[in-house]
Amino acid sequence: MTTTPIALGTALASFDALWSPRIVTRVNDYDVRIAKVHGEHVWHAHDDTDEFFLVLEGELHISLREPAGERTVVLPKGAVFTVPRGIEHRPSAPLGAAILMFEPSGTATVGDRHDEIPDHVDATTGHPLTSW
Questions:
Q1: What gap in Å lies between CA 125 and CA 93, rounded to an integer?
Q2: How far apart are CA 63 and CA 114, in angstroms?
Q3: Per-residue pLDDT tens for 43-98?
Q4: Which of helix, strand or coil describes residue 11?
Q5: Dihedral angle computed from the Cα positions of residues 1, 76, 117 and 47, in that order, rounded to the nearest 10 degrees
Q6: Of 10, 12, 14, 73, which one has the fewest beta carbons inside 10 Å?
Q7: DSSP letter at 45?
Q8: DSSP element (H, E) containing 8
């Protein structure tokens, strides 16, 4: 963890990979991750943790499979949303977006339960932000 401020725009400009989050800092036992996203992620669920999203640029869609049925929330720039633990969800960004996520360190990007992972999705617990 750095002891200097981090400009999120500069941090986002330091990498090009999609669906491959970078850890910008840690808060207690939680990672603060940023990612560039475009297209669809994979349907997945985190059994033991909620997942927080903040849209930094663009628009993020999150499809949810809830007990009452399936729905999609649309998050414009500046919007936040928390997916409750155990709820299957699939983030997507038809036009591309930049997002910030807050979740326990070591949480896999594809959750504890997921569909087959497509080649464009990085199954990781986050990469260090190495140059910014």
A1: 21
A2: 14
A3: 999 999 999 999 999 999 999 999 999 999 999 999 999 999 999 999 999 999 99
A4: helix
A5: 70
A6: 10
A7: E
A8: helix 8-13
Question: What value does the CA radius of gyration of the chain take, rounded to a whole number of Å?
Answer: 14
User: Which domains does the chain carry?
Assistant: 8-124 (2.60.120.10)
30, 105 Cβ separation under 8 angstroms: yes
Segment 89-107, tens digit of pLDDT: 999 999 999 999 999 999 9
Is residue 2 pLDDT above 80, yes or no? no
Tally DSSP H helices, then E strands, for the chain.
Answer: 1, 9
The pTM for the full model equals 0.92
Give the Cα separation of 79 and 126 in Å (integer).
22
